[in-house]
């Protein structure tokens, strides 16, 4: 790779930024990468800027820099990603958690208020972030989570065990092998990207994140159609279904679920970028 930079931490970070720029990557990645690498705050960084960089496992960070120079996502290089203030293990078998996905949890909290669901199902759990965070919010609930990828489930199990959170994980294509009972809350962040949207995506997502968890047929709607077919047998008569969607899919997903649940109250909610991101189905 490039040189093993020396000098103070401030000098090394400046050299690292120049190295990324030379390699055609965003030099601004260096500071955020270093903060995540060390799990530091900005105050921590300021307090250590004049110390020798070799004090801080700098050769290990240089290996991260090499990956960044090739366009690899930082989270895969570190093997972890932060979601709602908690570090989750990730691998190439899992999507990198996005903060906007936390909107599903916020909607669940708002809906249930002082009450709480006793049975929760997370379909397409990936790293397990939704199942685990919902288990934290609703500690009395029994939480079930499924994924079609055994490799993703291995990561989800590690995350739950690391946080001492109990979740029952199942290898399943949508609801095929999950316990058949009535759930008060069902959440899902399924694959929803259409193949014709490739030009809208960052190359690092296309090149590194698992396509099984990204893309779906039928203009990205195939998994929603399958969910709409299967969920009537699993949702409680006063339950709530929460789905993450692509920003152009709100009306189409709402229509799919209105056909499956004619009496349901269906609403579309935006993320913090003011884009349609969630569909809520109140049975």
Automatic annotation (TrEMBL):
One example of a Gene Ontology biological process annotation: methylation
Family matches, as InterPro entries: DNA_methylase_N6_adenine_CS (IPR002052), HemK-like (IPR004556), N5-glutamine_MTase (IPR050320), PrmC_N (IPR040758), RF_methyltr_PrmC (IPR019874), SAM-dependent_MTases_sf (IPR029063), Small_mtfrase_dom (IPR007848)
Principal EC category: transferase
Signal peptide: none
Domain of life of the organism encoding this protein: Bacteria
EC numbers for this chain: 2.1.1.297
One GO MF term: peptide chain release factor N(5)-glutamine methyltransferase activity
Ranges of residues in domain Methyltransferase small: 116-194
Catalytic activity, as annotated: L-glutaminyl-[peptide chain release factor] + S-adenosyl-L-methionine = N(5)-methyl-L-glutaminyl-[peptide chain release factor] + S-adenosyl-L-homocysteine + H(+)
Isomerase keyword on record: no
TM ranges: none
Segments forming domain Release factor glutamine methyltransferase N-terminal: 11-79
Keywords from the UniProt entry: Methyltransferase, S-adenosyl-L-methionine, Transferase
Keyword match S-adenosyl-L-methionine: yes
Protein name per its UniProtKB record: peptide chain release factor N(5)-glutamine methyltransferase
Native source organism of the sequence: Eremococcus coleocola ACS-139-V-Col8
Gene expressing this chain: prmC
